[in-house]
Write a structure and sequence with these properties.
The chain has 154 residues and is of the alpha/beta class. The chain has 6 helices and 5 strands, in the order H-E-H-H-E-E-E-E-H-H-H. Strands 1-4-5-3-2 form a 5-stranded mixed sheet. Helix 2 runs antiparallel to helix 3. The longest helix has 14 residues. The chain is globular.
C-alpha cells in the first residue's frame, strides 16, 4: 500500500464522540461506499470479520483496533483513521470474550492479499512509539495525522 495515494483528509475522523462499534462501522462503510472505494459487500464483511476475528489491542496508553476485510470487498486501497479519546468498545484480539475501549481505529483497505502482513508490521512498529501515538490521538489536525502516518508507515 502506498500511503501517498491512500491517505485523504476526509478519511481521517478526529475526536469522534463515543458510539457503538457497529454505528461506527456503518458510518465508515457509508462514506466508503459513497466514494466508490469498497464493494457493496464491504459493510457486512467488516462486521462479520470483526465479530469472528476481533482486532482490538491494548497499547501502553491507549487501545487500538485494525478492522479489515478480504481483498475482494475493496476497490481502492485506502487507510481510514478514527480517533475517539473517550473510547469505543471493541472485543479484544487476544481474548474475544473480553471487551476494551479503543481510542484509535485503523480501517485497512488493501487490494493485495499479502499486503496485510507487511502493513500490519509497519503499524505495530508505530504502536511501539507511544509519543507518536499520543500525538495522533490528541491532535486536532488531520494533516498532522497524515504527517505522522507518512513518517512512520512509508
Amino acid at each position: 500500500m502506498s500511503l501517498n495515494t491512500s491517505l485523504e483528509n476526509e478519511l481521517i475522523h478526529i475526536h469522534l464522540p463515543t458510539q457503538q462499534r457497529d454505528e461506527l462501522f456503518i458510518k465508515i462503510s457509508d462514506q466508503l461506499l459513497e466514494k466508490g472505494i469498497v464493494e457493496s459487500s464491504y459493510p457486512e464483511a467488516l462486521r462479520l470479520r470483526e465479530q469472528h476475528h476481533p482486532t482490538a489491542m491494548q497499547l501502553e496508553t491507549m487501545g487500538v483496533a485494525i478492522p479489515h476485510v478480504d481483498v475482494e470487498h475493496v476497490r481502492e486501497e485506502r487507510l481510514v483513521v478514527v480517533t475517539c479519546p473517550e473510547g469505543i468498545v471493541f472485543n479484544q484480539a487476544e481474548d474475544p470474550d473480553l471487551t476494551m475501549k479503543v481510542n484509535v481505529i485503523f480501517f485497512l483497505l488493501l487490494k493485495e492479499k499479502d499486503a496485510h502482513l507487511e502493513f500490519l508490521m509497519k503499524l505495530i512498529s508505530l504502536f511501539q512509539k507511544t509519543d507518536q501515538m499520543n500525538t495522533l490521538l490528541n491532535t486536532d489536525s488531520s494533516d498532522e495525522v497524515i504527517k505522522i502516518l507518512a513518517k512512520n508507515l512509508d
